[in-house]
Design goal:
single chain; alpha/beta; TIM Barrel; 2 domains; about 40% helix
Length: about 400
């Protein structure tokens, strides 16, 4: 066995840099698999301030408001970022500024319809400074092997200016939700990568738009009617460099492709990127390829086949992240029209490589050259070395 393995530094095509930089000093629950362990961590929280935690996997354990009320003000984000819980003390603290969110956050359908507002809500209550962003960028490079990162949710013009006037400019680029994009100066609109849209939810919250119900009966959520999505794509074609569209479920992916085909018929050559596409089927994939759609996917989400086996419809664990179908049958080429990112779940090369090279199902497998082509940058920026036993055991 090799004593060291290396890959070129990564270009993470999908994450939330400013959001995670703000969460960087919060309690991390990503490795916590038992309720009691989490509750013991909360016992150390400070009174008189809002405390936060992130990375909670609801597949491992539930967290109820009643058991959180004994702690100081606390808000906890789900691993998927689609959903969160908080105690009554946190509600009281946040209600004056965020009344609509406090009134509705326990309604999952409302949350999916307002997902960008909720993500920006987390940015506001856990704001990142240039110091924390610089520290986080250093962590990403040293510990995760991430050199460049695309932030899928620019919070504001102010944040753009902070990054644009710092050394991080060379490593961090931005997409903006449609409402934030409309507020940006035209000069900034032209500098950022484009507009980010959400068309469905996530597996953790059972809200991805799948063609079959989740095992708990949830049918998932589509954010837009197809006609609405077409209108947004046409707006993006007229104003933005590109558009990136969150579509995790097979129904959502099909809707995006239908909308893209419509705007293509109208003469648009807009850069369109499909984010996640975890359950896309072969017919939709071929149509996406013909429409010139780029795929932006997360090899680390292969783990969803295991951690969400309690909720995915029967047969969908095998359909998750169908890389071999996309490459071998639909004709997508890593590094050309298929790129990889992490969504911060988690960041970095090691876990993504493990899921790529040692997946749960053969159809999820990427080889090393495909991984490097779709995920890595030029070696001139450096390479990330690690112990291969962390991947192969």
């Amino acid at each position: 066995m090799l004593s060291k393995m290396s890959v070129p530094y990564l270009h993470d095509s999908h994450s939330h840099f400013t959001l995670y930089a703000g969460m960087f000093k919060s309690i991390c629950l990503k490795e916590v698999k038992a309720r009691e362990a989490a509750l013991n961590m909360f016992a150390e929280l400070e009174d008189g301030k809002l405390n936060s935690a992130y990375g909670w996997n609801s597949g491992f354990f539930s967290l109820e408001k009643s058991e959180l009320n004994k702690f100081p003000p606390l808000i906890i984000s789900n691993l998927s970022l689609h959903g969160f819980v908080m105690n009554e003390e946190a509600e009281k603290l946040l209600r004056p500024e965020f009344e609509e969110i406090i009134d509705n956050y326990e309604n999952q359908e409302w949350c999916e319809e307002h997902v960008t507002e909720l993500l920006l809500f987390f940015v506001k209550i856990m704001p990142a400074t240039i110091e924390t962003m610089t520290e986080f960028a250093g962590f990403l490079l040293k510990e995760c092997g991430v050199y460049e990162i695309e932030d899928m949710l620019l919070p504001s013009q102010e944040t753009f200016e902070i990054i644009d006037n710092s050394p991080l400019k060379e490593r961090v680029s931005f997409w903006a939700d449609i409402n934030t994009f409309r507020t940006l100066p035209e000069k900034t609109q032209k500098k950022i990568r484009g507009i980010k849209l959400f068309t469905d939810g996530a597996n953790g919250s059972c809200t991805a738009a799948l063609s079959r119900p989740y095992l708990n009966g949830n049918k998932g959520v589509l954010t837009y009617a197809t006609s609405q999505l077409v209108g947004l794509l046409e707006e993006a074609a007229a104003t933005a460099n590109g558009v990136a569209i969150h579509a995790l479920g097979d129904i959502a992916a099909r809707q995006v492709v239908e909308a893209a085909e419509t705007v293509r018929k109208h003469g648009s050559s807009q850069f369109i990127r499909l984010e996640h596409a975890q359950f896309i089927d072969l017919e939709t994939a071929k149509r996406a390829k013909n429409a010139g759609i780029i795929l932006s996917m997360q090899p680390n989400f292969t783990e969803d086949s295991l951690i969400y086996a309690d909720r995915l419809p029967y047969g969908f664990a095998e359909r998750n992240n169908p890389f071999r179908m996309l490459i071998d049958k639909a004709g997508f080429v890593p590094g050309k029209d298929m790129f990889f990112g992490s969504d911060g779940m988690p960041h970095g090369a090691k876990f993504a490589l493990k899921q790529s090279l040692c997946p749960f199902f053969e159809g999820q497998r990427l080889n090393l050259s495909e991984f490097i082509a779709g995920y890595c940058i030029d070696k001139k920026h450096g390479v990330y070395e690690f112990d291969p036993t962390e991947i192969f055991g």
